[in-house]
Amino acid sequence: MTTLKLGLIGDNIARSRSPLLHRLAGAQNDLAVTYDLLVPVDRGAPFEEVFAACRDGGYRGVNVTYPYKERVTQGLRIDDALVRAIGAVNTVIFTADGPQGHNTDYTGFKAAYARVRGDAATGPVLMIGTGGVGRAVAFGLIALGATDLRLVDRDLTKAKALAADLRCAAPNVQISVGSDAVAAAPGAAGLINCTPVGMTGYEGTPLAAAAMTGAEWAFDAVYTPADTQFLTDAAAAGLTVMSGWELFFYQGVHAWAIFAGLPLDEDALRHDLIHTEEDE
């Protein structure tokens, strides 16, 4: 049996379910899959060195997560103009012509939104966090027809850079930039967390519960745990909540298509992911 060698490069990824997702996808196709968790600081090496070891070490491809999604774009071939505009990559495949970058956070967010909200309009959206996943989600919101985006980040330079890129892609969208999420929240229909706040090791919430009043829906890119304080508060306020688990699922499904090009029974994969415990 051929073995497909994959991996994930990122920080704070010990609880990632990506290894299980890709092993289950392989099992559906009678294909053995290895999926390594690669944390640069734990390996005593910079990101670029870990990435090069994967490129030269027989890996078919790697996923890339926080905080390396923008950093990895240097030296990649990115054929999709939209992904180049996003400026962040979460999926890399190694080919004879060199590493190629893709963004399944973008496609995964759109699929997750459609599963939870169908074709409902996004309304005005407050998005907290404008790093790698935030860039993908913001472009996803544009594709979903959003016309009013409020971008919030402690790093205003980063937020302004994303705003400029979004205005180039969609000149008619109203975009504001700030560093105070509570101040930007009034009138927002959608509330989005694209920061690591709330994930295991970064407990808390990026938005006070009182600021959620009047919104309609909330999405948290964090999926470990799936029931973050942000989403718990949103549900208590009566909002429709969309877990980061949905984004995790669809970005993984779309990454599998890039890595393996093999079919998936998505319903079976979803069931198995939910009901199968990760091996100790």
Quick summary:
The protein is α/β, with parallel strands linked by helices.
Descriptive account of the structure:
The protein is α/β, with parallel strands linked by helices. It has ten helices and eleven strands. It has helices at 18-28, 47-55, 81-86, 104-117, 132-143, 156-169, 181-184, 229-236, 244-260, 266-275, and strands at 3-9, 32-38, 61-64, 91-95, 98-102, 125-128, 148-152, 174-178, 190-193, 217-220, 240-242. The strands form two sheets. It has a six-stranded parallel sheet, with helices on both faces. Strand 7 (148-152), helix 6 (156-169) and strand 8 (174-178) form a beta-alpha-beta unit. The longest helix is centred in the last third of the chain and has 17 residues, at 244-260. It is globular. It starts with a strand and ends in a 5-residue tail after the last helix. The model has no long low-confidence stretch (mean pLDDT 96).
Offer a few descriptive terms.
single chain; 280 residues; alpha/beta; 6-stranded parallel beta sheet; 5-stranded mixed beta sheet; 10 helices; 19% strand
List the helices and strands and how they pair.
Blueprint: E1 3-9, H1 18-28, E2 32-38, H2 47-55, E3 61-64, H3 81-86, E4 91-95, E5 98-102, H4 104-117, E6 125-128, H5 132-143, E7 148-152, H6 156-169, E8 174-178, H7 181-184, E9 190-193, E10 217-220, H8 229-236, E11 240-242, H9 244-260, H10 266-275
Helix pairs in contact: 1-9, 4-5, 4-9
Helix content: 25-40%
Quick one: how many beta strands?
11
Structural class: alpha/beta
Average pLDDT value? 96
Gyration radius from CA atoms, angstroms: 18 Å
Give me the strand/helix succession: EHEHEHEEHEHEHEHEEHEHH
Question: Strands across the major sheet, in which order?
Answer: 8-7-6-9-10-11
Strand content: 15-25%
SS field, number of helical segments: 10
The span between the termini is 24 Å
Q: Outline, from the CA principal axes?
A: globular
Main sheet overview: 6 strands, parallel
Uncertain runs: none
